[in-house]
Amino acid sequence: MAKTARETFRVPGGSRDVPVDLAALDPAGRPIGPKDKSAAEADMVDLDARIDARQEALYAESVGGGQRAVLLVLQGMDTSGKGGVIRHVAGMVNPQGLQIASFTAPTESERAHHFLWRIRKRVPVPGRIGVFDRSHYEDVLVVRVESLVPEQIWRARYEEINAFEAELTEQGVTVLKCMLHISPQEQAERLLARLEDPSKHWKYNPRDVDARARWHDYQAAYAEALRRCDTDDAPWYVVPSDRKWYRNWVIATLLAETLEELDPQFPAGDFDIATERARIVESVIT
Amino acid sequence: MAKTARETFRVPGGSRDVPVDLAALDPAGRPIGPKDKSAAEADMVDLDARIDARQEALYAESVGGGQRAVLLVLQGMDTSGKGGVIRHVAGMVNPQGLQIASFTAPTESERAHHFLWRIRKRVPVPGRIGVFDRSHYEDVLVVRVESLVPEQIWRARYEEINAFEAELTEQGVTVLKCMLHISPQEQAERLLARLEDPSKHWKYNPRDVDARARWHDYQAAYAEALRRCDTDDAPWYVVPSDRKWYRNWVIATLLAETLEELDPQFPAGDFDIATERARIVESVIT
């Protein structure tokens, strides 16, 4: 049997003591699934139907009192495609069942609180698929690379994150975390493409080039976050993202597999069908 | 030139002194646009592109400091298709640019506040297309029909709503309000269909049949809300909704026309393109 996406893209390791070697993972790799864009597009139609059916059941389940939800966490360097995943993968889902949260630099008020304070407020409610566009991982990524807090503070956060995500699991939120893995060459091309197109200038920020200069520091910070915070309850997946269509296919597949394992169920009605049918038939409005 | 959807479906009247006669408006009418479902589906592809392009520009405009947003208000009897519009019309929009709020019966805490308190919290932020699935109009609809507050209270609300919507206009939020107009016969069929399909039981609520028994009271309440709260800044549209595909086509067209009139613009970058290009080209990561 073919390997699932969850088996294929789970961050390698299996031991928290072995460093994650991101450089050994090919950002242009296609180990399973479609070999070209048109095959991926055909697959996406099926994935849409798979995701849609389970999402509706998950939503319905919550109307019947169910507590389960899903949280898809997206992290990646600038231009890695977090926005594209929201458009093309989250865009498959009925928006009624979707809850998107984008985390930019924290405000002064947010910085005055614990780093998880603003995150907790955006955890998806029951029945929803939540998407975090950046997340609490920024607090061990940019915060670490830019030394925004002392090392002893950010170093303690890995365990705080694990405790937080265990809490989410316990309350019924299934967490899946995707690192959108791109090569520095691909990033340069995408940044240049933004400069070429005036309708993309709003996405261009000169500071992204400053962050790019610290590429290896960021990769090291990612590698440590992946190693310390990959758990069976809240696994990390490394998604080859140099090809946009493959990235979308992988994440849609991870989401479909996750929803299928949850197997949400439409709740039974707490009414008598024959009685209700009679009430409707008798209620003739003239 | 063909009439626009905004001209065609604007609630008839032009005078606040003349009652709105909903019974004279055909819920199965198709005064403009596609004559069948397959023609509508072809149109929807174009509408998707029209909406998508403007939505992205609206979002981008807000990144550049723009304050404009759009608010689509959906009201209608049970089964009229508010959920279907969210799935099929709001589902066209990049979810990043969407902000959906569903207003069910207010909680005790919400009831302790002014009726607009919970509404104001959900007004779309700049750059977003907001969708209200039910809205502040419930406070002059169900509240009136079920006598949940004294008449002098709900009667004062029409002017409070107009003042609130004028405020929205002033702060840059373009409001369009759609009443999904269905016939009582169509409602009976849809309620029966929900009973027939166990995967739709979660949508069935016996109280919907109680509300159905007060059909004419609800129509009268709608007619008065449409008459008193139809303004040039926040117009009411009556959308023939007995055919789902036509309902979706009308609302997508109203949204496209509204966005095209707004004509949002991509903001110019505040950086020097040549400088940035050189910085990227020079930042070779090995």
From TrEMBL, chains A, B:
InterPro entries: P-loop_NTPase (IPR027417), Polyphosphate_phosphotransfera (IPR016898), PPK2-rel_1 (IPR022300), PPK2-related (IPR022488). Keywords: Kinase, Transferase. Pfam families: PPK2. SUPFAM superfamilies: P-loop containing nucleoside triphosphate hydrolases (SSF52540). Residues 37-264 form the Polyphosphate kinase-2-related domain. It comes from the Bacteria. One of its GO terms (molecular function) is kinase activity. PANTHER family: POLYPHOSPHATE:AMP PHOSPHOTRANSFERASE, POLYPHOSPHATE:AMP PHOSPHOTRANSFERASE-RELATED. This is Polyphosphate kinase 2 family protein. It comes from Pseudonocardia acidicola. The lineage of its organism: Bacteria, Bacillati, Actinomycetota, Actinomycetes, Pseudonocardiales.
